[in-house]
Amino acid sequence: MSLLRLCAFAKCLGRRGFLQTPAVRTSFADDCQLCSSLRNRTGRRQITGTAVHNQRTNVSFVFPKKEDVRKRLPEHSQLLDVLEARVHQLLSHVTDVPHAQVPFHRPPSSKNIILSGISPNKQPQKVTDKPKSKVKADAKSLTSPWKQRISQEKKTRLIQQQHLRNVKIDPSKIMSSVHHDIAHKTIFLTPKKTATSTKIMSKVKKVSDKNDAKAAIPQTATSTVTKGAGEVSKKLSKMEQKPSKNSTKETTEEAAKMEKPKTSLRQKLNQKTTATCPQEGARGSASVEVRHSVRAYLEACLFSGNIDTGHSFLLKLHRMEDRRKHLNTDIYNILMSGWAKKGSLNNVGQLFILLEEAALKPNLGSYSAALECMGRWVTCPSKVITRCLDQMKKEGLSVDDLFSQCVFHHDEKDMVLKAVHAVHPEYQPQIQQTTSQFSLPLVNDFYTQRENHQYPKLHLTQAELLAGFKRQLSMELACTVTINSVEAAKPLTENMAKMREHLNNLNNQWHKTLLKAFREKKMILVKTSTKYQSLYPYLCLLEDKDYVNMMIQSISTLLPTGLTLTAYASSLGTRVYTKYCVLRKQQNQMVQKLGNIYKRYAQLLANNTQTYTTLPREHWCQLETEQNLGLRMEHGAEKGWPDVVTLKLGSYLVDLIVKNLKIRSDILNPAEKQALIPILYHMYTFRNFQQIGFIKPHPILTQILSDAVETTLTFDSYIMPMLCPPVPWTSASCGAYLLTPTNLTRAVDGGKQQDELEKCPNLDAVLDSLNTLGNCAWRINKPVLDIIVSVFNDRGSDKLNIPPPLSEAPQIPNLSFQDPANKAAERNKMRDEANNARKKRNEMHSLRMEALYKLSIANCLRDEIFWLPHNMDFRGRTYPCPPYFNHLGGDMARSILVFAEGKPLGPKGLDWLKLHLINLTGVKKKSSLQERLEYANTIMEDILDSADNPLDGRKWWMTADEPWQALACCMEIAKAVRSPDPTQFISGFPIHQDGSCNGLQHYAALGRDVIGATSVNLVPCDVPQDVYIGVAHQVEALRAEDAQTGLKVAQVLEGFISRKVVKQTVMTVVYGVTRYGGRLQIQKRLEEIDEFPKEYVWEASSYLVRLVFSALKEMFTGTRKIQVNSPLQKINLHMHDINDKPDTVKQKNAFPPNFIHSLDSTHMMLTALHCNSAGLTFVSVHDCFWTHAYTVDMMNKVCREQFVNLHSQPILQELSESLLEKYCTELQSETYIKLKQHLAEVPETGNFDLHQVKESTYFFS
């Protein structure tokens, strides 16, 4: 990397300030004239007090313009004398102690040394001119002020060496590197070569390099070197090997005094270097967070055009040892890339020097920036490029690696290729696509044996897919979308019109107020733009009006109950980040790249193109490789903003809203006293004994928003389903939306989990399963949607789970606490009534708005085909990315979603529609499939009446457990039976197959528990087994025994133990519910029974939860052994990182359910992969699998085979080995020895034959 030191030194002779960029590059000829002017004593010294002083550099010297040179000729001789005296003084510090023993240290800012010791605000003292023969005299020949100043500097430095804390740097290596650069990497030009110029240049070089190494602040200048560089190198070597006698004599006394302290210092430094020398990859979580923040800040600076600010910021971090150790090469590469675009090879070289000083190695990104910069330098010598390529080769990096692994924007690739062609004209990049190696037995056969795979195509043409792509791209570029509200159909009243006028006027006024306040505050922040964690760069990313629009949009969506400050600020910060990402991709020309790839990718999915044998992920990666566009790596380079940045920025914007936006107090009631009041106010509340900041809207604003009944709704673009197939997931950072950033994992602390996920060697099977779910095309069931909207706009319906409007909510009573007639008990009762009414109104408003969003989005998509991209949580459970409208919603949302592609029902399709309808009603759960089918045939009149007259007929569908889905199924059955041939009827209606208490199914399979497996339908039976009824019977038997012994609570419970009472506890006990939680569940069920004596509720619930746990222990012996004897249930793990110390109680309760959830998600993903390879449409809601009626039998077969395949693996043994490897390596304490023993004990399993699952009809049904 030392090849670029040459540029860093040479440009020091022509740059005015450290970070100042010249308007025009200085030519080599001009530089030679400057050198000549110095040689002829026609140059003068100039101290700038701006950039140099602000950066607190230790050395500052420049040569001014020609017109300035002529002004002060008498002072030129002083400059030369000062320089030479300074050189002697600096050399004395190099020669009095061996180089290996001299640590470099940057003095504190209060004692900066500026070349000759003069402060920036002082003028140089006059120095008596001396003959040339006495140039080598020591500092005694100087005038008194100079001598005193230099002597004082030496004493200060010796004192400072006693307090060194920096890591020791070997100056011999630095000097040898400089010598090597000058001797071998200098571009020789044609200026006149004189002894004087060579002598001065060598000494100035010595001053510059020594101070650069000491302060770690390279100087900025143009690329200028002289033909006499060989002599310069020789001169430097002599100066290093043979110090002058005078300089040696001058420091002998001080060196002797400091001998003991320096010896002690060297020992301490050696210890510290060994212990704390920064090594990349071993930073810990704190380093990750620091790097994350620094990366975000630097990228924001570059995007907003503040590269100088970013450079200053990085230099400050580099100077601080406690900060520098957290940095890595990629951080420095960010600025290298920015300077490379400007063609500043000098600054790129300086960053290479900083890398060396930070004990970091340059990587492909570093060399890419250097070569790009050389490509932009029109006259870059081939020797410089050759040495760069040679250095890459020494580091084990190839040029092909550079082109295949680096991300290129704009013309960066062309510039790098231009630089390479300068020395290798025939070179062409050879990029090879990496092939994944599948070592997991679960998926090895799936990827290696594809002869019979039939990947499904969509029912759309390529042109239709590309039209959807253009519309989706337009929506994401805008970042927001405005749709019509389903409430717009309401008749316009006088009050609504008045409120809408008020709201429109307020929005215009608020926009002006916020824009003015934002700009004023932004100007104040300019002064802090170089401070650590300054917000200024983040406020320059977008146009000012964009920030204001986001703030005003956030006000309209704020709930009357308010939001926590954290949630509100995070929402605003995330919106800024999303818009910034989209703009950055536009700036990087990624939109054009994306369009080129997607056009060819659509051929894989379209029904009018050839058939491919590759999966979407593989096809996308292949297209990227062929076109060498690097979208996947470009997505991967986006690490997002850390939470602290998002919250800080969001809080800043919230503060602007709270402090600046007002509303008149009399706007609704002219009788009120007129005053300006804030529309939002900041308050505090307590949750879980913690004080939490809250942002609430003023009631006046809430009333205006409610009464206005806006006809449109504005959402962020990622809220909406996609209008084209999602970008396939190809890595943990690339997939889903076209431009909107999306992580593969979703979690509160998603950053750390995302980082860990990106380290996983092979995620292909996970990514392919998510792509399968996301590629399912949907459409709206318009008849059902219209019925729901009519009920929604007609006061809703509690029975049908359609939230009513606020006009139906209870009114909050007016309290008169001051009335002396009201006693304390009455006042308390009035207060409780008011609180309950207020709580009810808030709940109704939340539910109403949620339903409004879902129905409005559905109505907007009523004539569209759309897609739902998926991601997952840390357990592997999958979720659609659009949050409001998706198939994971409740009964209402599911009822209006159908597959966009229909398939013939076939011979069994109609029967599956009928069975699905009976399952939705909640009746006949204990009956066989044949009995359910017969029951469906007996109620066909009710089914057809429900389809024909949903709101005016018998309304049979309203009695179902899932009424809206039941109505949709009734309509589908009616259309099928009335068709000429039901077997040929094209149906897109999804049929559900639900697992029978899926968590217990996995537990029973893990423990090979025969009794437990039978209870959850892993064993073939004639009728479905209901584990909840089994537990209820077992609990009843235990209760009867206690009742005979005279236990009062057992006698009271006689006749009240049912399936409903125990179901929730049984269902959640496998997911880690505690006895306390189970008691609350049972208590709630008992309270719903009117006949049960209320005075026994608490005692009875405590008694029953104990019996439920006892019954489960008897029924699932293997299961309980796995769960209760899990090592994490007994041993408290003491993590080494105190910042990540876990809550041991939560860990004990969370591990078993999370582990089981990971198993059910694995089962789902395996099923998705194999269904996709068989040509089936497949989606899931966790343990509920959906497909067409025609393919239910095929999906059931795949589902059972993959369950057996999963549990045939040594899961518990692998879990034990994984935990032992993670927590018990090289630990010898008694606690960890005990932990190791527990983790090594794999529970014994029972005798259940797992292959019986393949024949079990009711395993999933």
Automatic annotation (TrEMBL):
PPR repeat extents: 328-362
Composition skew (Basic and acidic residues), residue ranges: 127-139, 232-262
InterPro entries xrefs: DNA-dir_Rpol_C_phage-type, DNA-dir_Rpol_phage-type, DNA/RNA_pol_sf, PPR_rpt, RNA_POL_N_sf, RPOL_N, TPR-like_helical_dom_sf
Keyword entries, A-Z: Coiled coil, DNA-directed RNA polymerase, Nucleotidyltransferase, Transcription, Transferase, Transit peptide
The keyword Coiled coil is assigned to this record: yes
Signal peptide bounds: none
GO CC term, one of those recorded: mitochondrial DNA-directed RNA polymerase complex
Polar residues bias: start-end ranges: 116-126, 264-277
Keyword Transit peptide attached: yes
Superkingdom of origin organism: Eukaryota
EC number, UniProt record: 2.7.7.6
Coiled-coil region: 822-850
UniProt-listed GO biological process terms: mitochondrial transcription
Ranges for domain DNA-directed RNA polymerase N-terminal: 470-775
GO MF, one annotated term: DNA-directed RNA polymerase activity
SUPFAM superfamilies the record matches: DNA/RNA polymerases (SSF56672)
The reaction(s) this protein catalyses: RNA(n) + a ribonucleoside 5'-triphosphate = RNA(n+1) + diphosphate
Spans annotated as Disordered: 116-151, 219-285
Role, per record: DNA-dependent RNA polymerase catalyzes the transcription of DNA into RNA using the four ribonucleoside triphosphates as substrates.
Family to which the UniProt record says this protein belongs: Belongs to the phage and mitochondrial RNA polymerase family.
Protein name (database record): DNA-directed RNA polymerase
Species of the source: Cynoglossus semilaevis (Tongue sole)
Lineage: Eukaryota, Metazoa, Chordata, Craniata, Vertebrata
